Amino acid sequence: MKNKWKIRTIISLLLVFMVSFLMIGCEIEGDISDRKNTKENNLTVSFIDVGQADSILIQCGNETMLIDAGNNDDGKIVENHLKKMNVSKIDYLVGTHPHEDHIGPLDYVIDNFKIGTVYMPKKTATTKTFKDVVNSLNKKGLKPIAPKVGDTFNIGSAKATIIAPAEDYKDANESSIVIKIQYEDTSFLFAGDAETLSENDMLKSGTDLSADVLKLAHHGSRTSSSDKFLDKVNPKYAIISCEKNNDYGHPHIETINKMKNRNIIVHRTDEEGTIIATSDGKNISFDKNNGTYNEGAKVNLEQNDEKDIEADSISENKNENDMKVYFTEKGKSYHLDKDCSSLKNSKNILMGTLKEAKDKGKSDPCDRCAL
Hints:
Blueprint: H1 2-41, E1 43-47, E2 56-60, E3 63-67, H2 75-84, E4 89-94, H3 100-103, H4 106-112, E5 114-119, H5 128-139, E6 152-155, E7 158-164, E8 178-183, E9 186-190, H6 196-205, E10 213-215, H7 227-233, E11 237-240, H8 253-261, E12 265-268, H9 269-272, E13 275-279, E14 284-286, H10 301-304, H11 311-316, E15 324-328, E16 333-334, E17 349-353, H12 354-359, E18 364-365
Parallel strand pairs: 3-4, 4-5, 9-10, 10-11, 11-12, 16-18
Antiparallel strand pairs: 1-2, 1-13, 2-3, 6-7, 7-8, 8-9, 13-14, 15-17
Helix pairs in contact: 4-5
Pfam family, one: Lactamase_B
GO molecular function: hydrolase activity
Protein name: MBL fold metallo-hydrolase
């Protein structure tokens, strides 16, 4: 009888132990799952160190956006970072404007990753860099969209809004696509190379420009980040993407002083390398210590001070009206590629300057080879 009682007692204790173990296991698993979901739902923004250039990776949930890809030689740098961040598909690819230090290896990215939607401004260029991007898009059957101010789309649970350009400005920098990302109570504004003309139009639009993090336009140049614009954005953090000892003296002391006087915390790739910001929807943290308020080294600044633009900007924009284009007698578009598929049925393809084409009413860029 005693033996039976002992056996029952032992069995009861074992059952209690097993139930307790299972309950604790479920709680631990639930806690791990919650932490995993929290991590996956965070917004992560990588400001990739591509020297005197821009490239920004945005991830939220299972979706990604890449804004620009640096200089022509930066393809591997961008690819390696994307792979490090477990990116195999880019849901939204943005080429802010057709300068080599922004779209340089965009063709390489298109060739090596699955691509969803592509955004590029109407502004075009006759450079090999731009044509390489167009060719890679055509090979994959991708048609870039020229976004309109106010357009929105979602990256995971984050909302992206197109803030600029308001028009197709003569200057490529001014035509930069500017995007605001809102993730719960936190926000980021990515300003491309937009300068004061575009900034003024953004201010006039009445759009909510406020953001916790501002990617300073044009690598911290004095030609961007006007006082009124900064007052409206009112960022807590500013990101400067530039190269150490660059030829332009970026970031300029005027811009740096504006950051310092407003107590805006600065992060900069020339000092910190690649910078990763993470938002949990309430707070934003950075993986690097704060940058300094030091101006850029004045290497060759005398000869570049009055022409504060990238080297490729000089060749691309000497006179846009003189760029060579193709068009037809009855068509309304101009083309950068004589072999464009939309011209395959045209028997008489004319060639001339962009000005000549526009004078003949061919003012629309071809959506296959010139967007």
